[in-house]
Amino acid sequence: MIANFFQSLKHHAVEYLLISGQATVLYGAATFSEDIDLWLHPTEDNCSRFLAALRDRNARYYKLTPPLTIQHLVRGHGFHFVLADRDEPDAFLDVMGAPPRVGSFADALAHARTMDSEWGQLPTIGLRALVDLKKTQRLEDYPIISKLAVAWFDQPECAKAAEDFVWAADNLFTLPELRLFFEEQPGALLAIGREPVAGLKEFAQQLLSTGDVTEEVAVRVNLGMQQRIASLQQADRRYWRDIIAELKQLRSTGKLMPEGTAA
Amino acid sequence: MKREETEFSESQPEPERELKLNESQSPYKAAVWRKLTPRERLRRSWAMRSRLADPRAIHDRKLFPKP
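The joint structure predicted for all components is written out below.
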């Protein structure tokens, strides 16, 4: 069913990127995601082609979904669909035209990767954009971000330059991944100038010289990372406030698509 | 902890064995998962989905959280 869906996207020349859960699985930072998330290039033509692909697969609108128009896509709304097949469990498809924190589709496409899979060749958001996209209100996204930061050094486009180390250190939010990062990239200690959290360099120095870190330093670094997470969660809440208010307005005026309607 | 040490000593990476949900959270399993190809990771991940009792509930909980 899913392979057929991606074939339909290809058949209709839909411009999209695979994002969020399945992208984190492809990069090795998560083992599981129950749905499929796409970033659709928000143009009139592409929107029409995407709707044609959905109709090919008998997709149906799911909950809290505005009509799939260019205006709603550009505004940043999410669109939710169900792909059904008699022999398989329903698959949930979540689509955005302007996801938060990641700039334009064209920029993201320039840094995208094509991933080989049983569903075909999948255009997939670049790892660094994926990290920014995952800075959500969900606490469970931050260990995944941290794993992505470590996985960056496995990617062919990573130069392992000072800038890569600084970027990774800025995107580590858990102690196990921080430890793994310095164990695998000991040169990072010299590259990091400003500490994203207090005690980070001391953490690395202790780890690299003794193989362990004192509890006092680990607690201090962990506290700093938790404060950074809280700040990012707050920023995400602020980002969604107006969009959710608009969605509620659409619902109260009966302008959302009825659940179960054919796409 | 004991169980994990036993797993570590008794089993080397087993590319054909399916990982369980959240199994990669242990450092050893995470290392195995990281060594798989993206294609293999996606295949295994989607195969795990069939074991979910209620994928709809999991999806809705994530996407439409209750305040």
